[in-house]
Design a protein that fits this description.
- The protein is flat, with a radius of gyration of 33 Å.
- The chain is α/β, with parallel strands linked by helices and 967 residues long.
- Helix content is 33%, strand content 22%.
- The N terminus is likely disordered.
- The longest helix has 23 residues.
Length: 967
């Protein structure tokens, strides 16, 4: 911690750059703090250097250098933060690595700006080499250098120092390399490249995934806050871990334990984490919030790798709790630990070699292939219950791989867990309940990559950013964020029921190859209802096949086999109602008939809609269960109404007492688990209502289409007539006038023209004579428009007169407007040459501080303003995305000849969208663009109005170095 008042404010005449401080995740999943080196760090620097091996010192200074002189210490701790900068990576406040740059001129000697090259050098403690510390420091020192106007780094490395050479060569920057005088000379540009960003993001994924794995796959666990008496949070967590069959070392900790107490329920007991012999990988903390800092300090001293903090009383409780939460995260990260929580429900891993239930769920869920993430404990237990339940809804044996309920998600968030699930071989489907998305830009990037590999189903709340996080809030409407998530391949649903419905289908069945649906069953009315729902969801159902109520199991088998064998069918919905009669099939018989028929064509999904047939759903599971059954039958997790609420955990005491005891486990009964089926058999999901089955199927169809299209996302076109440099000069000149401004009309037209976007000229008409002169200049037919804010783009109010073919009509229209709406000073009339008739549309682009640049499209007027019929895409937009953007609004048929109208020039419209996308992508200073109206005619498009707003470009987190959310 920096304590010198002189250092805190200034060093060598320059402000201390506090914004350079950052927490990073290292290659092995641990964390470190990166910060500027200051004059207060002399003792830390000397201590650090003493722990570096002679070999590493030799590599750094090219000669034996056993100790730093006083002059060295001063040089390495006194920086001006402009031409001389040093950064340190710290754990527990002590240095583990350093990096510095010195600005140099063309002659290699120290220099100041405008010199744009610097020499860079690293030193990493031997004990921390191989953890990716140098790579993280390079990202951060490069970002600092760019901020200070440095564009290139130079480094000299001994040929034997292969590790450091690899740090530079693997970074992905454009490099030059030479060998002179026995030294490898490296030079590289600091401008991010596609390769450097790809390297950075790959490292980010590996590091964050490993940090989560350290929490979910611990070799040893300590539960801190275990009560001496049965009951309470700590004691219940201990019992849940033990009862689940966790194979690792388990420890119970409570400062109130008697000194002679050796175990609790057979688990070794200790008064402090410090007393535990051997490594502790994970600590589950269930003590009052005021005692948590002492526990974290013990864990840090003992080398614990991660924490699950169940304790409440943090950001959810108000400003004081928010500051307590920030302090908790700072304390844990300072010692290399990550946190799930606080106010968490816990974590679960059902893998046979892990079997970890460090949560308040009283039973370990069935093992399976679904990963679950929830911020809310109540939602988490509800999801576990629904997935576990065998009757009264979506049923069958589909289990959980891992479960994380992150509580306040002060540190580990949905983004981190998504990084883990991306390449987790035990997880096939990801289900997430997100009350908010704190970093939409990063989540969208991670979601797109994950969705390309496995389904990602999300219920998104409308809450604010996580309490205590220093993240920029998005200004985009909730519906826009949802649309952008769908563009990224996320399956967006609105309720927990839909989340489970879609998740179970995706976990059990293959993706449909298209929207063609066959419907068959023993109820004509249920078949028709299913048919209607398919039409409503945009699917293409065939007429239902009615097998009649007298259908046998063999009839179902024969019909399903025929439907699956039909090349005109992509998926099948089977409807079934109870049948009465001597020949009616039993549940088990019907389930086996469906399973065997589905197995004959395993590439097409099959769903069942059943009415009041509890036994059929059970039989379908029995006929096709692939869930491991080595353990004894598990009882369902307690219902959400009996589970401890998040707020209840605030009442925990030092002994772990709790007002609601998870150990008191209500049983919901239910039949025994089904026997296993042959390996590779698909489970057939059963739904109690046609609308639920069809909605899940429609989501699977749309996701399958996205997966196919994602293999060829298209390209961002290059246009030869774009003048990017000319636009940059114009933007720079305009911004020199002020911080942010709406560009005047003339300069707006000039800027857009540099990107091949002509705006139809409009001339001011402050008097009738001026209007007539303008019309003569532009030519007839002409349009007369009022541009006052209350009348602009409001043709419905009568502020526009079109198709004026001569001066007489123009003067008459001018008189009518001024008579109806007021003086010309109020109306601000303009004259514009008539554009070809077509469909009026609106094109917008906006830079959101959290989500990035977003391109939007819709029809002008009520369709977009009143009905919200607007589509969105993230910039840069590819040619395929532009095509889908035009077609994704509900009113798109108006562009394609609806009811006999003339189809308009959509290729020209798509080109316009691509040019706007290029403009805002090339120039982040362009904060907003609005083209309204854009008239799309049978041939070409006409932009009749345009506004552009400029502002200094926002910071781009996704282009900067890897960091954890700030506190």
């Amino acid at each position: 911690m920096q304590t010198s008042a002189d250092r805190q404010d200034r060093q060598d005449g320059h402000e201390y750059p506090a914004h350079w401080e950052a927490d990073v995740v290292l290659r092995d999943g641990g964390t470190a703090r990166i910060r500027p080196i200051t004059v207060d760090d002399a003792d830390r620097l000397v201590s650090f250097y003493e722990q570096v091996s002679d070999e590493s010192k030799y590599y750094r200074f090219f000669a034996p250098y056993p100790r730093l002189s006083a002059k060295d210490v001063r040089r390495f701790t006194h920086h001006d933060f402009v031409d001389r900068v040093g950064l340190a990576a710290t754990i527990g406040g002590e240095f583990i690595a350093t990096v510095r740059y010195d600005r140099i001129g063309a002659d290699g000697m120290p220099a100041s700006a405008p010199a744009d090259e610097a020499e860079v050098a690293f030193l990493v403690q031997d004990a921390h080499q191989g953890r990716g510390v140098a790579s993280a420091l390079l990202e951060h020192i490069a970002a600092v250098a760019r901020e200070r106007g440095i564009r290139r780094f130079a480094a000299e490395v001994l040929p034997a120092n292969s590790k450091m050479i690899k740090v530079f060569t693997d970074a992905g920057y454009t490099q030059k390399r030479s060998f002179e005088d026995g030294v490898v000379r490296l030079g590289f540009d600091l401008e991010p490249t596609d390769r450097s960003l790809a390297v950075q993001r790959a490292r980010e994924q590996r590091a964050e995934a490993r940090s989560v794995r350290r929490l979910l796959v611990p070799g040893s666990v300590a539960v801190v806050g275990v009560g001496r008496a049965p009951g309470g949070v700590g004691r219940s967590i201990l019992g849940n871990i033990r009862d689940a069959g966790y194979p690792g070392r388990l420890h119970a900790v409570n400062t109130s334990f008697p000194e002679d107490l050796r175990d609790v329920d057979g688990v070794p007991a200790y008064r402090s984490v410090r007393d535990i012999g051997g490594q502790v990988d994970l600590a589950v903390v269930a003590v009052p919030a005021e005692h948590v800092p002492a526990v974290v300090a013990e864990c840090a001293e003992h080398g614990v790798q991660g924490l699950v903090v169940l304790s409440a009383g943090y950001a959810e409780s108000g400003p004081e709790g928010r500051e307590r939460q920030r302090a908790l995260v700072r304390q844990a990260r300072a010692y290399g630990m990550r946190i799930i929580g606080p106010n968490a429900f816990g974590i679960i891993n059902t893998a046979p070699d892990v079997r970890l239930n460090a949560s308040l769920a009283p039973e370990l869920p069935r093992p399976g292939r679904i990963g679950l993430f929830a911020q809310s404990g109540a939602i988490g237990i509800a999801l576990l219950s629904r997935l576990h339940r065998r009757g009264g809804g979506v049923t069958g044996v589909t289990g959980v791989s891992t479960f994380v309920s992150a509580g306040n998600r002060a540190d580990v968030s949905g983004n981190d867990v998504l990084q883990y699930w991306y390449d987790d071989p035990e997880t096939d489907v990801v289900l997430m309940y997100l009350e908010s998305i704190g970093n939409p830009r990063k989540f969208t990037r991670l979601a797109r990559r994950t969705a390309a590999a496995k389904p990602l189903v999300v219920v998104q709340g409308t809450g604010a950013a996580p309490q205590g996080h220093a993240v920029r809030a998005t200004r985009l409407p909730h519906a826009t964020v949802s649309a952008l998530l769908r563009q990224a391949g996320v399956i967006r649903v609105d309720t927990i029921t839909e989340l489970v419905d879609a998740g179970l289908l995706l976990a059990r069945q293959p993706l449909p190859a298209g929207p063609r649906v066959a419907i068959l069953g023993n109820s004509e009315s249920l078949g028709v209802l299913t048919y209607d729902r398919c039409l409503a969801e945009g699917l293409r159902p065939a007429r239902p096949l009615d097998l009649t109520t007298g259908a046998t199991a063999e009839d179902f088998h024969r019909a399903l086999s025929a439907a699956l064998a039909d090349d005109r069918c992509d998926c099948v919905v089977v409807t079934a109602i109870p049948a009465i009669g001597e020949g009616s099939p039993g549940d088990a018989e019907l389930a086996e008939a469906l399973r065997s028929a589905a197995a004959s064509v395993p590439g097409k999904p099959v769903l069942v809609v059943h009415v009041e047939l509890g036994g059929l759903a059970e039989a379908l599971s029995a006929a096709a269960s692939t869930a491991p059954q080595a353990q004894a039958p598990a009882k369902p997790p307690a219902a959400a109404s009996t589970a401890p609420r998040a707020g209840d955990r605030a009442q925990a005491t030092a002994s772990g007492t709790h007002p609601v005891r998870p150990a008191e486990r209500p049983s919901t009964g239910g039949p025994a688990p089904a026997a296993p089926a042959p390996e590779g058999t698909h489970l057939i999901p059963a739904y109690p209502a046609a609308e639920r089955a069809v909605r899940a199927l429609a989501e699977a169809v749309r996701y399958g289409q996205w997966r196919r299209e994602a293999t060829d996302p298209g390209k961002v076109p290059e246009y030869d007539d774009i003048d990017e440099k000319g636009a940059a000069r114009l933007i720079g000149g305009l911004l020199a006038r002020g911080e942010g401004l709406t560009v005047p009309d003339a300069e707006t037209c000039e800027l857009l023209a540099k990107y091949g976007i002509p705006v139809r000229r409009a001339l001011a008409a402050p008097t009738p004579d001026a209007a007539a002169e303008a019309a003569r200049t532009l030519g007839y037919p002409a349009a007369l428009k009022a541009t006052a804010p209350h009348l602009r783009h409001r043709a419905d109010l009568g502020g526009v007169r079109l198709d004026l073919t001569n001066e007489e009509q123009l003067r008459r229209a001018y008189a009518e407007l001024t008579e109806l709406f007021g003086s010309p000073e109020e109306l601000r009339p303009v004259v514009q040459a008539m554009a070809p008739r077509g469909v009026d549309t609106v094109v917008r682009a906006v830079i959101d501080p959290a989500a990035g640049a977003v391109l939007s499209f819709g029809l002008a007027g009520a369709a977009s303003q009143l009905l919200g019929d607007t589509a969105h895409r993230l910039v840069p937009v590819t040619d395929r995305e532009a095509t889908s953007l035009v077609r994704s609004i509900r009113t798109a048929p108006l562009l394609f000849g609806w009811r006999g109208s003339t189809p308009v020039d959509t290729p020209a419209l798509e080109e316009l969208l691509l040019r706007v996308s290029r403009l805002v992508d090339d120039h982040p200073e362009v904060g907003a663009v609005t083209l309204e109206p854009v008239v799309v005619a049978a041939q070409g498009v006409s932009v009749l109005g345009a506004t552009v707003r400029l502002a200094p470009p926002p910071a781009r987190d996704d282009l900067g170095p890897r960091t954890l959310p700030a506190y």
